Amino acid sequence: MIKHMTLRKSLETEKENIRSLHLTAFGKEEGEAVSKLVVELLEDKTAQPLISLVAEQDDELVGHVLFTSVKVEGSKTQNGYILCPLAVAPDFQRSGIGKNLITQGLDMLKEQGAEFVLVLGDPAYYSRFGFHTDHQIKPPYELPYPEAWMVQELRSGVLDSVHGTINCADALSPREYW
């Protein structure tokens, strides 16, 4: 049972705790790469502006989501973001923490004038938040699972004019993350 859950912006001093959370949430196989990526993104000037949110219970970080800025080559609309990564501590998974982090992040982005958010993730999970594959925004590399490359429009009609390949933060650019 979740009690006393707080969602808030992460602090600069919490990078190590955020790294540990991602390491635990993703396990041995993926954890090293994802935990390294999240710290690099938090420090990457090319990821700015970004939104980093944590879920905290009893002074322990139990969830984290990061939204970093992206640009679309050849598109006038340039106020886009990518959701990457999302982590919830294993003991707290399937309790709504991920949903709350994503929803709050999307609301904050909308308030700041963001126009769309991309994600490379499980279609069954992210489609519940309004992410879909009906768009003309290409990832930086060909994907083995193109159905996992989804977008959510935050400003109605914006996807009609967004066509091209994304440029994401330098830390997220290596092929291994795609």
Q: Main traits of this protein?
A:
178 residues; 30% strand; 8 strands; Aminopeptidase; 27% helix; globular; alpha+beta
Task: Kindly describe this structure.
The protein has 178 residues and is α+β, with helices and mostly antiparallel strands. It has one domain (5-177): Gcn5-related N-acetyltransferase (GNAT) (Aminopeptidase), CATH 3.40.630.30. Helices cover 27% and strands 30% of the residues. It has helices at 15-43, 97-111, 123-126; strands at 5-9, 50-57, 60-72, 80-88, 116-120, 136-138, 149-153, 163-167. Strands 1, 2, 3, 4, 5, 6, 7 and 8 form an eight-stranded mixed β-sheet that branches. A hairpin with a 2-residue loop joins β2 (50-57) and β3 (60-72). It is globular. The termini are far apart. The model has no long low-confidence stretch (mean pLDDT 94).
What is the element layout, followed by pairings?
Blueprint: E1 5-9, H1 15-43, E2 50-57, E3 60-72, E4 80-88, H2 97-111, E5 116-120, H3 123-126, E6 136-138, E7 149-153, E8 163-167
Parallel strand pairs: 4-5, 6-8
Antiparallel strand pairs: 1-2, 2-3, 3-4, 3-8, 5-7
